[in-house]
Amino acid sequence: PDWRVIVAVLRERFIAVALALASTTSARAWNSTTASLETPWKMAWRCHGRSNEEMVDALRAARIVKHDDVANAMKRTDRKDFSPEAPYHDSPQGIGYAATISAPHMHAYALEILRDKLRPGARVLDCGHGSGYLAVAFAHMVAGPEGGAGSAAGGHAPGGAGHGAEHGEGGRPGKVVGVEHISELVDLSIANTRKHYSHYLDSGLVELHVGDAFEGWPDAAPYDAIHVGAAAPHLPGALLDQLAPGGRMFIPVGPEGGFQNLAQVDKREDGSISSRELMGVRYVPLTTRAHQLHGM
């Protein structure tokens, strides 16, 4: 195992426990209208299962997952296809190249925070998509019932013709674009997606690219939802530009190794930006390939 990943995972767990003990403001649960956090943070890191369905049910019981469509998307995205070790344990796991797949509760938070924007026909950008897990979960929600029908409990959606992208307002097809600067991780994410969700790649609903997450992917912009899977030192201007009016961004902001906040960033219809901090987090940094691989 990569010792840097082990250290990063242990550090992330330690920080989460420290935050749970030190912060009374983090003892909050979801408000479905404003996506504010009001659920006890201590419930996170405990939502384990013996199967993907049990894990999601635990997240639902802890009120981290609040809505049926989020639960269904997670149940249809079997985590074992993306996490080689302990897939149903509520903790981050190494996937190679000094990268991790986030803990299931953080994926649940991302889906809940962005839920209102993940409608059939929506466009989604996943910056630092890593294993590809969230790209597929986003696709389930963006495709709609006709675009990604499958077993909710089994996590597998059938391939074949007729499983393309839903069209949103104005006839623009839905799309999920992933951007990752480690080419080997892009190859891994494509292989993971091919296990049971090839129809999303074949139809063009999901695209997974090698690129700079700071710069996003302007070719498919604007996006109704943007997820950033690593901590940026500041809000990237390129991503703000690519966020559609009425769109929302999920992004951890803060220095590498320092205090970070999970931010919900909304672009109003007039183009103005509002941002609010939801909770303290600890993410790997949004950085360059050379910096990420240094010391491996």
Strand content: 15-25%
Overall radius of gyration: 17 Å
Structural class designation: alpha/beta
The poorly predicted ranges are: 15-42, 149-164
Strand count = 9
Mean pLDDT: 81
Helix amount, in percent? Answer: 25-40%
N-to-C SSE string, H for helix and E for strand: HHHEEHEHEHHEEHEEEH
What is the CA-CA span between the terminal residues? 11 Å
- Strand order, biggest sheet? 5-4-3-6-7-8-9
- Give me the number of helical elements: 9
Which sheet architecture does the biggest sheet show?
Answer: 7 strands, mixed
Shape: globular
Summarize the structure.
By secondary structure, this protein is α/β, with parallel strands linked by helices.
Q: Could you characterize the architecture of this molecule?
A:
The chain is of the alpha/beta class. Helix 3 (68-75) packs across helix 5 (133-147). The chain is built from nine helices and nine strands. Strands 5-4-3-6-7-8-9 form a seven-stranded mixed β-sheet.
Features:
alpha/beta; single chain; two-stranded antiparallel ribbon; 9 helices; 296 residues; 32% helix
How is this fold's topology laid out?
Blueprint (H helix, E strand, L loop, with lengths): L2 H20 L29 H10 L6 H8 L17 E4 L2 E3 L2 H11 L8 E5 L5 H15 L27 E6 L2 H14 L1 H6 L2 E5 L12 E6 L8 H6 E11 L6 E8 L5 E9 L7 H5 L3
Parallel strand pairs: 3-4, 3-6, 4-5, 6-7
Antiparallel strand pairs: 1-2, 7-8, 8-9
Helix pairs in contact: 3-5
